[in-house]
Amino acid sequence: MKEKTQRLATLALIAVTVIWGSGFIATQFAIDSQMPTPWIMMIRFLVGALCIFLFFRKRIAPTPKRTVLHGMVAGFILYIAFYTQTVGQGRTTISNAAFLTATNIIMIPFLLWIFTKKRPPLRIFALCLLTMLGVILLTYQGGFSLSFTKGDWIVLLCALFFAMHITWLDYCGENDEPVQIAFWQLLTAGILGAVVVFITKTPVQTEQMQKGLLPVLYLGVFSTGVCYFLQTWGQKYVRASQAGIILSAEGFFGALFSLILGLESFRFTMLLGGLLITLSIILAQRPEKSEQANQAA
Question: Is 182 part of any domain?
Answer without folding.
Answer: yes
